[in-house]
Design goal:
Chain lengths: ~70, ~425
Amino acid sequence: MTEPINRHEFLQSMARGGMLLGLAGVGAAALHGTKDPSECMNTGFCNTCDVYKVCKLPERKEVIHGRIQENRPA
Amino acid sequence: MKRLSKAALLLLFLGLAASVYAIEIRFAPPDFQTDYTLPGERIPAPSAGFGAWDVLILFAALSTATWLVLKKRSRRGLFLLSIACMVYFGFWRKGCICPVGSLQNVAAAILIPGVGVSAVVVAFFVMPLIFSLFFGRVFCASVCPLGAIQELVAIRPIKISSSIERALGLGKYVYLGVAILGVGTGAGFFVCRYDPFVGLYRLGHSFNMLLAGGVILVLGIFIARPYCRFLCPYGVLLGWMSKFSKWHLDIAPQGKCVDCRLCESSCPYNAMDMPTPIHLMEKQDTGKKRTQRLVLLVPVITGIAAFAGYLLHEPLSRMHPTVQLSERVAAEDLKLIPEQILETEHFRAGSQTTEQLHAEALALRSQFKAGGALLGAFLGLVVSLKLVGLSVVRKRTVFEPHRETCFSCGRCYPYCPVEPEGTPNVAQERV
């Protein structure tokens, strides 16, 4: 016979289940929908990326913006 | 001998930092608009099949960390695993792919239409959170390369008061909110841009970020894991998960705590909750009334903070490069600033008109109105819930690790004189 769980444990397991569902939802939402062909793997090295030229992701903008700032004359 | 090895380790890192300074990227290659491609590559491109291997390795590392924390109870094992993870995820994989940064990729895929994210990135984001939900923050314990490097330099950790810890700890919520706002508005990936340790792992970065990394590491000798405790945005999510974890690091698992307080003094993170003192045990009614009042204040504080965030939309919007450019162009046109900079020269040489630029900036500012209000509401909610949490006095009879803030690093294991049956003699293990 299984022992009855107390209120604290019950609420904790409910919260855990909710969070697990939330994580599944976030994962599914991130993977769902029309996506850019250059899905960034977050390798962080845009200059070695094969699809850098056609990339529309914010990382590329980031790199361009960073370069402009670095090339700014002192 | 132990002091010597610690000094050697410190020297190694200082030497590494100095070598990184020597190879700082001072002149980044320009972004060519023609068909010209840069000859050669400084760093070989990662192979396409690496992602799946990385996921497998991350899973294996998380599983090993869980085993070391919950079953083996070995601080030494965790320490060695953290070195291995730092070498692989840090130096070998150059700090990428990283669950901390993947937070932004996932946010971008959800918030920006048409932006994609691969299953590997989602796996990197979700997997440490799931482990945290069941076993506590085992990812922070020894898998995260950012945490590992700080854990290694924490040689002389001092304790800071819990009130300062709580106040500084709000920094990570601010960083999380600003990072999501930055992604949602297209302002950039701030967590990656301002990652203080990636420069060390990649052996090259801007001087400012290398300096920031060096300062955090030197600070980390005395204040253990400052980035994890006060800034890490992913740590917020891991903490939330860990709060409800099914199993967690337990210092005296069989309830045999002898109140020696060794675990409390061995933890530099203020993550050990002491037994509730008798003078704090108040009448139930008093506590309930205070908590009820604070709960009623939650929507008020959240609303005020949301309004404050809304009012701050203009300074917040300046973190977006288009808004910055628009303001700069306007200032140059009004002759308030005599000289052009590279960005404005680049803009004036392009096809976009000034009106179009200002219209784009205006649209972004209105995005920041909503974003600022949401950011303010989030921070207000966090602060008010923290206040509610502080008002609740929980009855504890033994020392327990605080599930949300405990990194499961196992520093307390070797100090606990109570050993559960079937575990190795951890008291002899001092790392």
